[in-house]
Fold this protein.
Amino acid sequence: MKNSTMRMTEQRALILKILRSTKSHPTADWIYQEARKSLPNISLGTVYRNLRLLSASGEIMELDYGSGYSRFDSNPENHYHFLCQECGRMFDIDLKLFADLNDLVEKTLGAQVKEHRLEFYGICRECQKH
Amino acid sequence: MKNSTMRMTEQRALILKILRSTKSHPTADWIYQEARKSLPNISLGTVYRNLRLLSASGEIMELDYGSGYSRFDSNPENHYHFLCQECGRMFDIDLKLFADLNDLVEKTLGAQVKEHRLEFYGICRECQKH
DNA sequence: ATAGGTGCAAATGTTTTGCTGTCAA
DNA sequence: TTGACAGCAAAACATTTGCACCTAT
């Protein structure tokens, strides 16, 4: 664990163990339900707090669909975006679509792939000046 | 507009106009604040309802970060995912990272790109059987 | 001993929804 | 005329936070 001030509690160890024992990319609530089987008094807040800390320390990865809010684009055609982590602004990226990627994944997974979404994160040109 | 039963109300037209006049990929609340300048009595619920309908009809695109919940992955290394729109399950994709994409976007935008996220959507193998 | 963690419940912030009245087609 | 839509407020939802107590180091 990267942060040396982070204590290994029973709850934290359990959450890590649960997450590492599944390939299902679970939600916080699913992890909470699982955790209660071993520690019936564990609270949902503790699960969230630990998931956040473990993400921040690089121990696990969070794929967030829940924090934040939706953004809307008047261009309904698929295109790629860059999101500035400093100012929060979103920019269009002038890059041609990787149309063949869908076919590739379709073959690899045997799934029917309808679309994909590609997003870049970092610091935009203006925010780098500060 | 694809759905012929969709009525063009003053509110809907305004929301579309606002969204088309900006490149800022605004949030629902930002659109609401703008809309109130022309229609002070418009409600936030109306803005959300229209944005949802316009997305569904393919008129605009929603980039959602607000609906749903986060999912967690015990593998903190960047890798790509497939999300089944039928059963909601998420699968890892065995595809090598496009590391050079970050450089490309960095040059195009003049931004500092730290990472990217690539996700595929469709119907997984199992759900196709039904 | 003490800084960090826990459980609990209340708060937060975005988005959805029930209801009643209104208006575009 | 009428079914889709508006405004309003309450509900829903995942997630965060304040607080008093607890525990790993």
